Structures are given as structure tokens and as C-alpha cells.
Structure prediction request, 276 residues.
Amino acid sequence: MTDTITTDRRAERRDTPERRTHPRDVFVEFQGVHKSYGVKDVLRGVDLKVYRGEVLVILGGSGSGKSVTLRHILGLEAPDEGRVLIEEEDITDLPEEELYRVRKKFGMLFQSGALFDSMTVFENIAFPLREHTDMSDEEVGRAVVEKLELVDLPGTEHLMPVDLSGGMRKRVGLARSIVLNPKMILYDEPTTGLDPITAQKINELIIDLQSKLNVTSIVVTHDIQSAFSVGDRIAFLNQGVFEWTGTMEAARDTDHPQLREFLKSSAVVAAQPTRQ
Ligand SMILES: Nc1ncnc2c1ncn2[C@@H]1O[C@H](COP(=O)(O)OP(=O)(O)OP(=O)(O)O)[C@@H](O)[C@H]1O
Ligand SMILES: [Mg+2]
Prediction:
């Protein structure tokens, strides 16, 4: 199976002496987080650390609580029990106006894409700037152009979402989620529903943004190929907790039965040629 998984292009970055010798700075921390909806216990004592500068991939079955986990990071959900810390600040009981400040640290690429269909690409990306900053029209224009270049869609300002392919929509969504210069990007299933070549372009973009923007990222995905292309570490959500967390290398050799099953079930997909 190992051989079928994409070449790990980020391996050398992970293994720098610097990484090994410096204590790691924690950006996001969950301490014993519980969350239920009615009788359904979704998170059952989640502990998690996301280190500054890394790409953490969250894997887990449908309905396991991956999106719910992201919503807790943004303070869109509060735990029933336990704590959520962002850059060492406990945000668990913060009032809404304080959470607003915390949310500015994050860019979120939503699972659904969520572009405004009645607005041009330009207006979609400009929207957060108009809502949250007092930038002039000229500054907004410059920021939009810059972000469109970063996601490799220069010159598409005038297009409407209906004119865009699935991959382009994701990239416009991504441009919008980074327009306020977040410290951390949360990607909820960024490659789901895309063909393998387009998915690979999104993977490359995630890696590219990681270094260009100097951010920390979480990528929620079902796409094992994507996980191995972009991730530094995997956290496997199963039965309401992160049952296994470790490096991509360690994941390949794991003896955790469900994680093995999860990785194996996607090996066929990973074996398909996706590039060249
Ligand atoms: N606001 C809510 N009210 C009631 N139930 C909810 C709510 N949000 C999430 N759930 C339930 O919590 C569980 C986890 O949902 P979540 O969206 O986090 O799953 P997921 O791991 O992201 O799944 P998928 O891979 O399908 O996106 C699901 O059973 C879902 O129905
Ligand atoms: Mg989800």
C-alpha cells in the first residue's frame, strides 16, 4: 500500500533539525472536549494539538464530527464540556464580540464552497474586506487582484460563479478565505467532488499557500491521496475521539485497525495516475 500513496514531497520540510530541537508552539488545543446533539454524542472527550506552521490532516468517517471539530475552533460551537484554546487563549466561554476577534485569525474554506451566486468573483472576494475593514476601493481592488494571483486565477474578477468549474469555485472560495490574511486556514474537504487532476491542483495550492503565507492549516478530507500530498501529520477521528495521531510516515505503518482500513480502502483511488 505504501507504494501506491503519492510521493511525499513535504518530507524534507518536516524533518529539519530545527523541527526536532525546538519545542513546538501550539496554535490550537482541545482539552477533553465533549459535544452532543440531542442523544447523539459526537465528540466524546477530544484532545488535540495543532502546532504552528504544520498541516494537520483530519481523517474520519462521514458524520464522525470533523466539521463539528472545525466549528469549535472558530467558536461557532461551544463544547458541552472541556476547553478550546487558540494561541494559548481559552476561548471556551468568550462572549460573541470577543470571538469575533478570535475568528479573524482564521480563514475557512467551507465544505459547500458557499460563494454568493449573485456576485461576481471580485465582489465575492472583496466581501470580507468590505464587511470587516475600512479599506478604500483601491486597496480592496489591489487585495482582490493579489489573492486571485495567489490561487492562480488572475483576470477572472468579472466572472460569475455560474461560469466557474468546480475547481475554480474552490479556488475563488480559497481566495476569499485568505483575503483577511489569516494565521490559520481550515479546509473542509477541499478536493471532494473534483476530478483527480483538479484535486491535485488544489493540493499543490494548499502546499504553495502554506509556504507563501506562512500559515498553519487543518485539512479535513476523505481523500487519502490529498492527505499524503499536503499533510505533516494525521489525526484520525473515530468514535468521538482522535484515536490515532502521528506523522504521515507513522500512519503508513500503523497497526490501528480502523485507520489501516481507512487508508487501505482508499489505496485503489491513490493508485490511479493523477498527473502528467
Ligand atoms: N447543528 C447540529 N445539530 C444536530 N446535529 C448535528 C449538528 N451538527 C452536526 N450534527 C451531527 O453531528 C455529527 C457529526 O457531524 P459533522 O458534520 O461534524 O460530520 P463530518 O465528520 O464532518 O461528516 P462528513 O464527512 O459527512 O462531512 C453528524 O451526525 C451530524 O448529523
Ligand atoms: Mg463535514
